[in-house]
Amino acid sequence: MVRFYYTDSNYIEVNTKTPTVREEVHNQINFIPYSTKNSIINQGFIKRIDFDIDFKDETSFNSFMAVVGNVIKISLDAMKFYYATYDGVSFQRVGWAGVFSATFSFVLQGLQYSLTERNITANLALPNTGNYQAEAVFTVSGGGFSIFKISDGIREITYTGTVSEGKTLIIQNWKAYVDGEEFSQNLSGDYPLIPANQVNFQFIITGTSASNVLVKYRDTWR
Fold first, then answer.
1. What's residue 39's pLDDT?
2. Tens of pLDDT along 46-83?
3. What residues does each domain of the chain span?
4. What is the distance between the alpha carbons of residues 201 and 198, in angstroms, rounded to a whole number?
């Protein structure tokens, strides 16, 4: 059974034949805001994939068609998912059996992520059971600092700018926000990552207590 998510949590689950991967194209970040850096993180491969589905009747076919254009992610095993974009359908009806057969094409990003998101403060261990480095969102509560750093021991990102007492700093995908207002120009360095295949990693935090830093991420596979 394959789950096709048309919202972050809502999905339609159907039986499919073994999917066919039609091509793979290398993909990577080409530009980092407020910097001259490019190609920082290897994002894996984009997969063009076809799912052959036999619908028992027109009603089940129409139910799937009603949501397929909104599909944002696909799970092949109910544990991990790919981000996905719908790429069209070819359709043929087998009249004598009343079966609706269709081939649905999607573009999948090359990395898989755990369906369950981890939310752990940085003073605790940050496991990643996947075989690829995980990228996190950092929510720094409390404020009261002018320089904030996060390091994974190899890469370090620095936020240079006053975050007043009681305000919240969020660092996400090379962007920074203080109480919802963007201050990405205050970021410098390299984005720290959570290593693969480990259970006891911790970031090095400078500028505030590690317990003030909430780390949100998903175990990641390639």
1. 46
2. 778 999 998 888 888 899 999 999 999 999 999 999 99
3. 2-114, 118-221
4. 7
Look at residues 14, 1, 103 and name the one whose alpha carbon lies nearest to residue 52: 103
Strand spans (E) along the chain:
2-5, 11-14, 20-28, 42-55, 73-75, 80-94, 99-114, 118-121, 137-140, 145-151, 156-163, 169-172, 175-178, 181-182, 187-189, 204-206, 213-217, 220-221
**Could you tell me which CATH number the domain at 2-114 has?**
3.30.70
Q: Given the structure tokens 């009806």, which residue do they identify?
A: 93
Taking only the tens place, the pLDDT of each residue in 148-179 is 999 999 999 999 999 999 999 999 989 999 99
- Partners of residue 120 on adjacent β-strands: 215
The residue among 30 and 195 whose pLDDT is bigger is 195
* pLDDT confidence band for 143 (50 / 70 / 90): very high
DSSP assignment, residue 35? Answer: S
| Domain covering 118-221 assigned CATH 2.60.120.860 in the classification | yes
Q: Work out whether strand 118-121 and strand 73-75 pair parallel, antiparallel, or are unpaired.
A: unpaired
Q: How far apart are CA 170 and CA 180, in angstroms?
A: 8
